[in-house]
Amino acid sequence: MKKEVQDKKDGKHVLHLIINGQKYDWTHQYITGAQIRKLGNIPNEDEIFLKIKEPWRDELIKDDTSVDLARPGLEHFFSKTKFPIVIFVNVKEKPWSKEKISYDEVVKLAYESYVDNGTTAYTVTYHKGPKQNPEGTMVKGDSVSVKNKMDFIVTATNKS
């Protein structure tokens, strides 16, 4: 497959790349992981990967790794949070090692046990989350993606 090149931009050929599903233009043959991180606004705690076709494994791109964008094909980069991470539940630091957290799991982290007896109601709110769910509330059955230093507030009230 031939590399997609636009006419010219400021006298230079333009190469294209995809970062987390968004298309970007680049006017140099090579790009480093640090440049990908800056261009795609990827947090330092996330890892960057170059998508490789199956059956091969995606390639980890470190900040000092250089990638040749002039190779055939369109390079697709994506980021993932390094695990384990730390989340805050009711201001207390909690280690977390999965990409998502459920309503039940957040309540258990806050109160060590989850009482589902019909008389106790839990309210779960969160903020500082990833792009797909930066803030919101959770109800029973919900799960959300997490990121490092995400905040959860859980309150329990008695129904009467």
Brief overview, please?
The protein is mostly beta strands. The protein contains two helices and 14 strands. Helices cover 10% and strands 41% of the residues.
Written description of the protein model:
The chain is mainly β and 160 residues long. The chain has two domains: 67 residues, Ribosomal Protein L25, Chain P; 74 residues, Ubiquitin-like (UB roll). Helices cover 10% and strands 41% of the residues. Strands 2-1-7-4-5 form a five-stranded mixed β-sheet, covered by helices on one side. Strand 11 and strand 12 form a beta hairpin. It is elongated and about 70 Å long.
Taking strands numbered 1, 2, ... along the chain, how are they ordered across the largest sheet? 2-1-7-4-5
CATH topology of the largest domain: Ubiquitin-like (UB roll)
Instruction: State the helix count.
Output: 2
Annotation, overall tally of beta strands = 14
Alpha-carbon Rg, integer = 21 Å
Helix content: 10-25%
Q: Per the principal axes of the C-alpha atoms, what is the gross shape?
A: elongated
Largest sheet: 5 strands, mixed
What number of domains? Answer: 2
